[in-house]
Amino acid sequence: MSITRRSARRSVRILGVASASAAVVLGLSSSALACTISDFKAEAKCDGDKGVIVVTDTDVSRTPATISVFLKNNGGVETKVGEQKVKGSALGTPVSFPDDWKPSATYRVHVTAANKSVDEDIQPDLVTPSTACKSASPTPTPPAGTPKPTPSKSAPAESATPTPSASESSSAPASVPSNAPSPAAGDSNLAETGASSNTGLIAGIAGALVVVGGAAVFFGMRRRGTRGNG
Questions:
Q1: Span 46-95, pLDDT tens digits
Q2: Do the domain assignments include residue 71?
Q3: What is the pLDDT of residues 177-186, one digit of tens each?
Q4: Within a domain: residue 132?
């Protein structure tokens, strides 16, 4: 049984459609398996009390890629944190860059695929959280009922005038003797009693002298009278 031209044309047409469909499917499959920048994700996490930048590769084609992380400083200056190679997976392959990041810091993450299908930054730039990993330890609160400390009273100020010690008072110089003559014994007796203890003796002698003098005057006048009469 011979094949007619019409049947041959129909068969060729069917084969062409099938080939075109297969090419479309293969093209879509290859596009789906291609490495793209959307396969990469960057995050700022904490490893204990230390910061770390984690980049995850979900490229199912497992195309080798190089991840570079840069810290953006003020004035547009960048500091390279690190660089690592990675092969993605359906579940995601993470790579970590230890860096004790500061709150609200900005990082630029660049991805370069081995087949040059990707050579760009992850957009937008990574901005760290507003709270750092290591927080300051809280100030301990005293338990309830604990009495508050009372400030001690200051010691009284010392007197401005020093008090002489016993040794100083005992070493004081003796009084200087006066050059004035000391009073006689009789003067001291007069000062104490108001009269000398020999006052009676003197008065008796004076009275005897008066009597003797009177007798002398009497006898003298008598002699004068006798001579006048003779």
A1: 999 999 999 999 999 999 999 999 999 988 899 999 999 999 999 999 99
A2: yes
A3: 545 555 544 4
A4: no
Hey, which residues does 53 pair with through a beta bridge? 44, 97
pLDDT per position as a tens digit, 12-41: 566 665 555 554 434 444 445 689 999 999
Whole-number Å distance between alpha carbons of 36 and 68: 16
pLDDT in tens, 196-216: 556 677 778 888 888 888 888
pLDDT at 64: 96
Which residues have C-beta within 8 Å of that of residue 70, sequence separation ≥ 6? 78, 79, 80, 81, 107, 108, 109, 110
Where does a domain end: 127, 144, 177? 127
Q: Which domain holds residue 216?
A: 185-223
Domain count, the chain: 2
Distance CA(57)–CA(65), nearest Å, equals 9
Domain membership of residue 153 (yes or no) is no
State the pLDDT at residue 184: 47
Asked, for residue 56, whether it belongs to a domain, the answer is yes
Single out the residue of 55, 56, 59, 54 nearest to residue 90, CA to CA.
59
Encoded amino acid at 6, one letter: R
57: left (phi over 0), alpha (psi -120 to 50) or beta: beta
Structure tokens at 225: 């009278």
CATH code at position 86: 2.60.40.3880
> What CA–CA distance (Å, rounded) separates 207 from 184?
27
Distance of alpha carbon 160 from the chain centroid: 37
Alpha-carbon gap, residue 124 to 109, rounded angstroms? 9
